[in-house]
Amino acid sequence: MKWIWRILGTLVVFLAIAVIGLFVVGRMTLPQVDGEVALPALEGEIRIVRDRFAVPHIYAGSREDTVFALGFVHAQDRLWQMELQRRIGQGRLSEFAGEKTVQTDIFLRTLGFYRAAEATVPNLDARTRSLLQRYADGVNAFLENDGGLLPPEFLILGIEPEPWKPADSLVWLKMMALDLSENWTSEATRAQVARLLGPERMRQIWPPYPADGAVALPDQAALDALPDLGPMIAAARPFRRHDGLGSNNWVVDGSRSATGKPLLANDPHLGLQTPSVWYFAHWDDGETAAMGATLPGLPFVVLGRNRHLAWGFTNTGPDTQDLVIEQINPDNPNQYRTEAGWADFETRQEVIRVKDAAERTITVRETRNGPVLNEATGRVREFAPEDHVVALRWHVLEANEMTARAGLRAADARTVTELQEIMRDFDGAQQNIVIADVEGNIGFVAAGKVPIRADRSPWQGMLPVRGWEPGGQRLGFVPHRHLPSAVNPESGFVVTANNRIVGDDYPYFLTNEWAPPYRAQRITDLLTARNAHSVESFKTIQADQVSLMVREFLPLMLAFEPASERARAVVADLKIWDGDMSADRIEPTVFSAWYRQFVRQVLIDEGRGAFEELWAPRVLFMRRVLADADGMSIWCDDVATDAHETCADMLSRSLDLALADLEQRFGADRQNWVWGPIHEALSDHNPFTHVPVLRDIFDIRTPVGGDSFTINVAHSTMRRERDPFTTNSAASMRAIYDLDDLNRSLYIHSTGQSGNVLSGHYSGFVDRWQRVDYIPMSMRTEDIEPGAIGVLRLVPAR
Q1: What is the pLDDT of residues 573-611, one digit of tens each?
Q2: Which among 61, 411, 562, 654 would be 20 to 30 A from 179, CA to CA?
Q3: Side-chain half-sphere of 392: how many Cα atoms within 13 Å?
Q4: Span of 215-229, 660-674, 762-776 with lowest mean pLDDT
Q5: What gap in Å lies between CA 767 and CA 773, rounded to an integer?
Q6: Which intervals of the chain form a coiled coil (predicted)?
C-alpha cells in the first residue's frame, strides 16, 4: 500500500506545481496597471487610473496623447479581440484557422473591405489621419514594450500580433456597417422565394409599404431570368445579423423629468460575444473630455457623453445595398453590359494563405457597381447562368467614407445642433442618434448615407436590378439637411427602436423593412404613463419584459379547441397570462415553442428550397395569416395533404408538436420548463466556442428573460434546431444619462472590461447586466479613485 501513497503524493506535488505554474503564467499574461512605463513616442506624461470596475480614466495634456493612451489600454485589455477583428476585415482567418475558414476569407477578400480601408486613409483630413496614427502608435507602444506574455489565445493558436495601422481601425468601422446591414441578403432571399413560389406569395411575405395598399407585382419574366441565388445566400450566412437585431433609445426633455432637465437612455442590441464588443473608457485632455462605450480598435467614444451632452444610437436599417445583375458579353467574357455598351471587368488577384494547406489564389472581378459575388461562393456555375453575374453595390466599399472623422469630433460638440452637424460626416450604416444637452435641448438625427435610386416603384431596393437598364442606376444620396431630424419636438420626447421614423409625406425612400412597432410602442406607453421621469423610472423601462407581440398574438392563437388533455392544460395557463416574459416563468417557454412550430408548419410546405431562410418570426406576415387579411389564412393549408387545413388545425398541430419538442428537450415535468435557464444568454468566444473543451472555459452563459419584442430584449434564432431558445443577441450595453448632472449617469455592458479569461474582470459585469443593474459613469475624481485597482503613469523616455 505504501507505493500507492507514494504515487499519490507524487501526483499531488506535480499537480501543485502545475497549478502554481499556471497561476504564474496566467499572471504574466495580464497587463501592468500600476507603476510607470517609459515610452519614446510620448509628448507628455499620461496618467491612467483604473477604477474599481477596471474602467480606465485617462488624463493627458493633449488630445493626441489621450488617443495614444486609448490605443495603449485597448491593447492591454482587448488585444486578441483587436487582432481577430483585423484579421476578419483583412480576410486572413485561414492563416490560423485552416481550411474551415477559406470560404469566409474568399467572401471577405471579394468584397474588399481592407482594400477600401487602406484607400480611405489618404482621403481623410489631416487631423483625422493624425489621430488615427496616434492611436496606432499607442497600440504599438504596448506591443513593443510589454514585458509579459501575450493573452492565452495567442499562446494557444501560436500567432503573433502585427503592428497596428490606421487602416486596421477603419476596416472595423466597415465591418460594423456590414453587421448592421443585410439588405443584399434580404434581396437575394426575396428573389429566390419569388422564383420558387411566384411574385404573389413573395409579396404576401414581404409586402412593400403600405402593407394594405394595392401594389403592382414585379414582372414574373424578370424574376424567372434571375440567377439562382441560393448558394449566394448560403455563403453570406456567417455574416447575417441575428433575427430581429435592433436597439432602443429615447430621450425626454425637462417637461417630462423630475429635475427639469433631459434624460436619455440607450441600449444597442448586438450579437452577444465574449469579450463584449464594448469597452468602457474615459479620457480628459484638460480642455475636452469624453466617457462611454468605445470599440477596441477605434480611437473614440462611440456611445456616451462629454461635459455638455450625451448621445445614443439605434440602427435605422435603411436599404443601402443593391444586388445588380450584370450581363456578360457573349463574345468576350471579360466584359459586361452597360447602357452605353460593353465595359471591361476590373480584375485583381487575391492570395489566401491557409494553415497546414496550400495557399489559394482567386481572381476577383469588379464592375462599376461593385465586386462580383459569384466568386465569393466558390460555386460559380451554381450561382448564375454563364451569361450573367451578380455584383454588390454599397457605398461602404468605396474609399470616401468619413465616419471616423465624425466619431473623433463628437466629443467636441456642446449642443444638440452642433452634434447633428458633426454627424454630417457619418457615412456608415444609418443610425438614429438621440441627443440631449445640459442647456435642456433634445433632438435626433438619422445620420448616414442613403441612396436615391432611379427606380421609384414600390419594389425599389427589394429585388435585384439589371445593371444595364436606367432603372438599375443610382442618382446620388439623400442630402444631409433632408435626413430625418428633430430639435425640441412638441411632444417633449423622442423614441426610436428600429421602427418607422418618417411619415407618408417624407419625400425619400429609406426602407421597406422597418422593425415591428412593439418595442417602440411599449417604450412610448411607459414614457407617457407618468408626468415626471427619473433615472430610476428609466431603469424600470430598460428592465421591462412585457411582450406586446405576445399580447397581440395570443388571443388569435388561442382561438381553437385543443385536441389533448395536455394541450388543454397548457391553454388554460396561457389564457390567464399577461405576456410577461420574465425569466422565472414557464409560459414564455411554451408560447415561444408553440409560435416557433406554428411558423414552421405554415411555411415548410410552401417554402420549399427557401424554407431555411424563411423560418424566422416574421410577425407582420404571421399576423396577417392569423387575421385572414386578404384571404391569407390560405397559408395554413398544408399543400402536401388532400385535406384543407385551417389555421385552427395548424395551431392545434403546432401546439402538440411544441409540447412534444419541449418534453424531448427538457423532460415531461413542466417545472423544468422555466424560461430563464432555457433562454440563457450565450456570450460566445471566437474561435474557442467551437472547441468543446475550451468553450466551457471561455464562453459566458447566464439565464435571462425577455424575447425579441420586449424592451429588455433577448433574441433567439428559431431556425437553429440544436438550440432554438438560446439568446444570441441582446442589449450589448445599457446607459442612462442625467443631464441635470451628467456625473449621475449610469452604464453597463454584457461581460467585463478584460478580454483575458485569466483576469478577474473577464466576466465582472455579467451579474449586474443580467439583473439590469449599472455602474456609475462619473468623471468626478472622488467617484473614480476610491477602490481603484491601479494607477499607471506613461512617461516620455529620457
Answers
A1: 999 999 999 999 999 999 999 999 999 999 998 766 677
A2: 411
A3: 33
A4: 215-229
A5: 8
A6: none
Q: What pTM value is reported for the model?
A: 0.92
Confidence of residue 16 (pLDDT cuts 50, 70, 90): very low
Q: Rounded to an integer, what distance in angstroms lies between the CA atom of residue 118 and that of residue 190?
A: 34
Instruction: Give the 3-state secondary structure of 279-320.
Output: EEEEEECCCCEEEEEECCCCCCEEEEECCCEEEEEEECCCCC
**What Cα–Cα distance (Å) separates residue 308 from each residue in 280, 288, 291?**
19, 10, 12
**Greatest distance between any 2 Cα atoms in the chain:** 93
CA-angle at 133, arms to 128 and 137, nearest 5°: 150
Local confidence band at 382 (pLDDT 50, 70, 90 cut-offs): very low
Q: State the pLDDT at residue 383.
A: 40
Sheet holding 370-371, edge to edge: 346-352, 360-367, 370-371
CB count, 10 Å around CB of 578? 10
* Residue 390 in grid coordinates: 451578380
Q: Give the model's pLDDT for residue 245.
A: 57
**CA separation for the pair 156, 147 (Å, rounded):** 19
Query: Looking at the predicted structure, is the pLDDT value of residue 357 above 60?
Result: yes
Selection from 303, 295, 241 nearest residue 267 by Cα? 303
* pLDDT over threshold 80, residue 242: no
C-alpha cell at 171: 476596416
For 26-50, what is the mean pLDDT?
90
Residue 335 sits at the vertex; the CA angle it makes with 332 and 336, to the nearest 5 degrees, is 125
Residues 212-222: b if buried by 16+ CB within 10 A, e if exposed = eeeeeebeeeb
Dist. CA 374–CA 60, nearest whole Å: 50
- Residue 455, CB half-sphere, CA atoms under 13 Å: how many? 19
In the chain, what are the helix, strand and coil shares in percent, each to the nearest 5?
A: 40, 20, 35
113: which residues sit within 8 A by CB, 6+ positions away?
A: 89, 90, 91, 171, 174, 175, 178, 397
- Annotated binding-site residues for Ca(2+) read 187, 319, 322
Question: What is residue 376's three-state secondary structure?
Answer: helix
Q: What is the pLDDT of residue 788?
A: 97
- CA-to-CA dists, residue 768 to 28, 208, 742, 758, 777, angstroms: 28, 41, 21, 20, 15
User: Which residue type does 745 have?
Assistant: S
Q: What angle do CA 628, 633, 637 make, to 5 degrees?
A: 170
CA distances in angstroms from 461 to 190, 336, 483, 617, 702, listed in the order given? 11, 22, 18, 22, 39
Which cell numbers in the block locate residue 499?
Answer: 421602427
Residues involved in catalysis? 247
Q: Which residues of 425-464 are buried (b: 16+ CB within 10 A; e: fewer)?
A: bbbbbbbbbbbbbbebbbbbbbbbbbbebebeebbbbbbb
Query: What distances in angstroms separate CA 408 from CA 112, 172, 619, one per listed residue?
Result: 25, 15, 39
Do residues 50 and 790 touch, judged by C-beta distance below 8 A?
yes
Confidence of residue 563 (pLDDT cuts 50, 70, 90): confident
Amino acid 228: pLDDT: 54
| pLDDT at residue number 17 | 38
pLDDT surpassing 60 at residue 236: no
- In this prediction, residues 403-425 reach a mean pLDDT of 97
Question: What Cα–Cα distance (Å) separates residue 609 from each residue in 225, 603, 692?
Answer: 18, 11, 32
454: cell is: 432611379
Angle ∠(59,63,66) on CA atoms, nearest 5: 40
Annotated binding-site residues read 187, 319, 322
